[in-house]
């Protein structure tokens, strides 16, 4: 059978059912499933080979790497013509705000059939607790944002009333009718928390079809979650009731217990208990993406249909959310509070930027990583020395050598070179040389302090403790270095306890750079302590 061409607002063959695969978006919301842009592109190529009609490529506003992934997929897979002449639709997902929508459009616009999918929650619990908006406000935002998406030149706009299954039906008919007037070409009806029975979900689709003005002009889609193990059954009932686009993921992965599975038919057999197994899987009550985490932190029932405790699953503090590349500020702030950090808004915003950059490189950001990030960020303002450049030579022949360039607060650059027993040792010694030389010649004037005061501040340094933790497996993971130093006064080298210690922590991809960063952070704290 040849596929009918996809033309927004025109349904040439009402019996044709399109498959939308959201492995790259909702699938990635599965805890631990973060993918690199290159991996996403590979998966998109496979989805195209499978003949998937619509590829939901990601959430471009969520991170630079997701923007890059969606853009690469749009430019390549979004222009691939299949044997039947079909070119897949490529979706970029966006919240109902101009920034998300503009970013999504920038990422997808080079695809032959780009589609923006914009969502906003319509259930009473989400509107009240998560969005803190009235029905009227949500209706107005939804219409305005669909029009905005169309105004960018995007002629295919999907609207998603998030948590539709728990929304008041009359309100659903109204908002869907209004967004169709505003230019929506597909309406996706999600059972966001996977709460419905198959007959209820089928009836929901049938009711929307029967009661929504102008619905015959658009495609109705299903998006079913598997919290009760019914995602596939509900999807099939949705299709029987008239839905003509079905949203699925490879292996049924997705937020919490996952989505309807692309390959699953009716039977479920499995030797292993997969993490996204309904109710009892390790991820069934774990929230990965920022918008879910934010809602869950404000009110648990926004994204959980039952409390896990009610079925005997205990949740200790610190669980329920995992921090990764899809997390937002609210979740980050909460975890930092649990770790004992009360940061101001601008500090959270600054840590968030570094957090996102780190999360793009690794699947999970651990507590140790967070502590390192905060330590770097909060002490940054007091930095007297910054690492400019670092070069090390090491090998089996001994004589490791390091060349270090440090930049002081006045912008002047200082270079020193030292040998040592290893890369880190030689690099620390080179740092010491810069600090000590400056003390001896007393040539640096910073912070308008006197020469006497200066020489007191930069007394030689004694390394008390040094450790490196590679938190996850693999040589390309993040190394968190921790250094503790003590001021050594040449004139008074007696009791240790008269000299306080100073610690520094830094995380990064390279062990030596992280170590030197941590060492300099500790020196900065020491210099700033008097
Ligand atoms: C049902 C679903 O699957 S929804 C899709 C889930 N996917 C994701 O969350 C993608 C990954 N997310 C992220 O990277 C981040 O959450 C971001 C970049 C999108 C946002 O990060 P932040 O700006 O730090 O916000 P954070 O995630 O902490 O909170 C979400 C905010 O968006 C608001 N919001 C949630 N949904 C919507 C929506 N559809 N339209 C507009 N605003 C929304 C929330 O009310 C909250 O606002 P507040 O901080 O003013 O209370
Ligand atoms: C954003 C929408 C489609 C979603 O993932 C959901 O409601 O589950
Ligand atoms: Mg979903």
From TrEMBL:
SUPFAM superfamilies: 2-isopropylmalate synthase LeuA, allosteric (dimerisation) domain, Aldolase. Transmembrane segments: none annotated. Signal peptide: none annotated. One of its GO terms (molecular function) is 2-isopropylmalate synthase activity. GO terms for biological process: glucosinolate biosynthetic process; L-leucine biosynthetic process. It catalyses: 3-methyl-2-oxobutanoate + acetyl-CoA + H2O = (2S)-2-isopropylmalate + CoA + H(+). Residues 17-286 form the Pyruvate carboxyltransferase domain. Keywords: Amino-acid biosynthesis, Branched-chain amino acid biosynthesis, Transferase. Pfam families: HCS_D2, HMGL-like, LeuA_dimer. Its EC number is 2.3.3.13. GO terms for cellular component: chloroplast. Belongs to the alpha-IPM synthase/homocitrate synthase family. This is 2-isopropylmalate synthase.
